[in-house]
Amino acid sequence: MTQADDWSDYWRKEGAEGEVFLDGAGGKHPELEAHWRSVFAELAHATTIVDIACGGGSIFTALPDDHTHVLHGVDVSDEALKVCAARHPTATLHLGSAEVLPFEKATFDMAVSQFGIEYAPDKVKAFTAAAACVRPGGRIDCLCHHQKGHIDQKIAPAYTGTQAVLNTNFVSNAIALVHTKKDHHESAHVLARNLFIDSERKVAAAMREARSGIHVHLYGGFKEMFSSFEKYNPDEIVRWLGEMHEEIVRADARYAQMAQAALSETQIDAIKACLVEGGCETVSAEPFFTSTSELPLAWRIQATR
User: Fold this and answer.
1) Label partner for 178 (CA 20 to 30 A): which of 56, 147, 188, 209?
2) Are 97 and 120 contacting, i.e. CB atoms less than 8 angstroms apart?
3) Do 246 and 273 fall within a single domain?
4) Sign of the alpha-carbon dihedral angle for 67, 72, 74, 78
5) What is the dihedral of CA 234, 236, 237, 241, to 10 degrees?
6) Facing residues of 48 across strands?
7) What average pLDDT does this structure show over 74-99?
8) Which pLDDT value is given to residue 23?
9) How far apart are CA 295 and CA 149, in angstroms?
């Protein structure tokens, strides 16, 4: 599966909820909204803006309703672009990679990205392309995942949980346990139980590190159903386990992508260097903090050509 296929599958299943949500209600963090409002408040009328790896167009929701800016978005996922188009019907959207943008050089006054451009497999190439698409005097302003920052640290335990489930074959061992109990096959059931106990111990250990998450839901749900086996249809338990496995595979892939995207200081130095080589005169990359966390939420990468 290509990166484009992977992201389209993700957006097809997650829809608008596929964005990086940061508040308890599932909406955009108010300080992120305030950040982009302040950025856009500095712009002249009719500025041409491109959101690189735009996803569902979250950044553009910070624009005032009466703005005169010319909006473009580019993303590898056609499903993400459908979400963006529904939110921002006046934006011109393009299917394409952040590494090879589908634009002529010096096309835009401003390039922005929020938790998007850094997902490119070659991050330096993506930022080089961003610099090339901005006109002289134009700006680049991006918020990117910060390695060891708030988001990175938040997902790490949950990632440990999904890895524990997948690496121990928890679901397949649980299914075998259900089948052998249903069929009253004692010797096979003893073997299945021993295999499951090993999986269970490792997932339980992961739960001590991450006390919430899809692995906790799986563990608790199966424990409840199996301990009250006579109350449930075994085939329904198996179906539920299969559905949970699919959800955990998707969650694990998402956590892996986020971990890969998080930028280290070494990667930040390489990105700054490529922006300078790409013709940017002022380049900066600073941790972006919010009032609710001691860890940085993101890197804010800025450049002016």
Assistant:
1) 209
2) yes
3) no
4) positive
5) 140
6) 70
7) 95
8) 47
9) 5
Please state, in angstroms and rounded to a whole number, the distance separating the CA atoms of residues 216 and 54: 32
Instruction: Please determine, for residue 26, whether its predicted confidence score (pLDDT) is greater than 70.
Output: no
Domain count, the chain: 2
Per-residue model confidence as pLDDT tens digits over 132-158: 999 999 999 999 999 999 999 989 999
- On whether both 163 and 241 belong to a single domain, the answer is yes
Do residues 54 and 73 lie in contact, with contact meaning Cβ atoms separated by under 8 Å? yes
| Cα 304 to Cα 279: distance, rounded to the nearest angstrom | 9
HSE-CB for 224 with a 13 A CA cutoff: 8
Please identify, among 235, 257, 279, the residue that sits at the C-terminal boundary of a domain. Answer: 257
> Do both 103 and 169 map to the same domain?
no
Per-residue pLDDT for 20 more than 80?
no
- Give the per-residue pLDDT at 94: 97
Kindly state the tokens that stand for 159: 């990632």
CA angle (180 as vertex; 175, 184 as ends), nearest 5? 150
**Nearest residue to 61 via CA among 1, 112, 135, 104:** 112
Residue 238 belongs to domain spanning = 150-257
> 294 exposed, middle or buried (CB, 10 Å; 0-12, 13-18, 19+)?
exposed
Query: Given a cut of 70, is residue 11 above it in pLDDT?
Result: no
Token pair for 237: 């338990």
pLDDT digits (tens, 9 = 90+) for 36-83: 999 999 999 999 999 999 999 999 999 999 999 999 999 999 999 999
Compute the radius of gyration of the chain from its Cα atoms. Answer: 23
Residues paired with 304 in a beta bridge: 139, 282
- Are 143 and 126 members of one domain? yes
**Phi, psi dihedral angles at 103 (to 5 degrees):** -135, 155
